[in-house]
UniProtKB/TrEMBL annotation:
<dbReference type="InterPro" id="IPR006015">
    <property type="entry name" value="Universal_stress_UspA"/>
</dbReference>
<dbReference type="InterPro" id="IPR006016">
    <property type="entry name" value="UspA"/>
</dbReference>
<feature type="domain" description="UspA">
    <location>
        <begin position="3"/>
        <end position="156"/>
    </location>
</feature>
<feature type="domain" description="UspA">
    <location>
        <begin position="212"/>
        <end position="283"/>
    </location>
</feature>
<keyword id="KW-0547">Nucleotide-binding</keyword>
<comment type="similarity">
    <text>Belongs to the universal stress protein A family.</text>
</comment>
<dbReference type="GO" id="GO:0005524">
    <property type="term" value="F:ATP binding"/>
</dbReference>
<protein>
    <submittedName>
        <fullName>Universal stress protein UspA</fullName>
    </submittedName>
</protein>
<dbReference type="Pfam" id="PF00582">
    <property type="entry name" value="Usp"/>
</dbReference>
<keyword id="KW-0067">ATP-binding</keyword>
Length: 283
């Protein structure tokens, strides 16, 4: 059975993450595992910082109170985490997903992801998390790390979920975009969705590869419109997404060199920030 891994931190993107996970699971006939990571307990670091700062007696009394406070905060964090997972389960089951697994782990998402995505067909994360700077439009730090390291396609949830009826596939002929085409041709994720297959470049730019991609998707039963447009990729793709009323952007990202693994690609980063629709990203 296919499996969707939905990663949540309980931020305002959480309902959208569950909505997108439910949408994908219903189309792929998949189970959903909801993963919530609880930050490691910071008490020890604070205790070390206090050492030598004040007198012995006062230090011991303060340390005791800090330990009690840390324990209380730890219990509260556990309760919050359970509430987040229970809310996710309620939303997913209400959406008709029969098999839902809840997992709570301590640590960082990027450290746990390799273990959990081994059994996943798709990872769902929010565009931003609790710590993101919304005013500056920054992407969540977890998102950037997940996109750099995940071996699975990553569905990046937008601020709010809405049914997906139109999709733009940004196709550049590279391995990641070919992987996207093959993934979508082999699975019913976009069946019934109007697909705009877009390449940015001059006339004659990999027309053969684009035609092959269109044929592969059409052979799988998708309704595909093909187009080549000139211009800067990030500008053209963002414009087509907006003007076509697309509900989803599909794109490849990242190469295999050292630098491309270290940094989020500029085109990918720009599109994730500027486009207000969810993005299905392949690497």
């Amino acid at each position: 059975m296919a499996r969707i891994l939905a990663c949540t931190d309980g931020s305002i993107y959480a309902p959208s993450i569950y909505g997108h996970a439910a949408w994908a699971a219903s189309r792929l006939n998949a189970a959903v595992e909801v993963l919530h990571m609880l930050d490691r307990h910071p008490g020890a670091a604070r205790e070390a910082e206090l050492s030598g700062a004040i007198g012995f007696d006062a230090s011991q009394d303060l340390l005791r109170k800090m330990v009690e406070l840390d324990e209380a905060q730890g219990r509260l964090a556990q309760q919050r985490s359970r509430a987040i997972l229970e809310d996710a389960e309620w939303v997913l089951r209400a959406a008709g997903i029969a098999e839902v697994t809840l997992t709570l782990r301590h640590g960082a998402l990027v450290e746990a992801l390799p273990e959990f995505e081994k059994a996943a067909d798709l990872v769902v994360v929010g565009k931003r998390g609790e710590a993101a700077d919304f005013a500056k439009g920054h992407l969540g730090s977890n998102l950037e790390r997940v996109l750099r390291t995940s071996i699975c396609p990553v569905l990046v949830a937008s601020r709010a979920f809405k049914p997906i009826s139109r999709a733009v596939i940004a196709y550049d002929g590279r391995a990641a975009s070919r992987k996207a085409v093959e993934y979508l041709a082999r699975r019913p994720l976009l069946h019934g969705v109007s697909v705009h297959l877009l390449t940015v470049g001059n006339a004659g730019t990999d027309e053969e590869g684009l035609a092959e991609a269109r044929f592969r998707l059409g052979e799988a039963g998708l309704d595909v419109h093909m187009q080549i447009l000139p211009g800067r990729p990030e500008d053209v793709i963002a414009r087509v997404v907006a003007e076509s009323g697309a509900d989803l952007l599909v794109m490849g990202a990242y190469g295999h060199g050292v630098l491309t693994r270290m940094f989020l690609g500029s085109v990918t980063s720009t599109l994730l920030r500027e486009c207000r629709v969810p993005a299905l990203v392949f690497r």
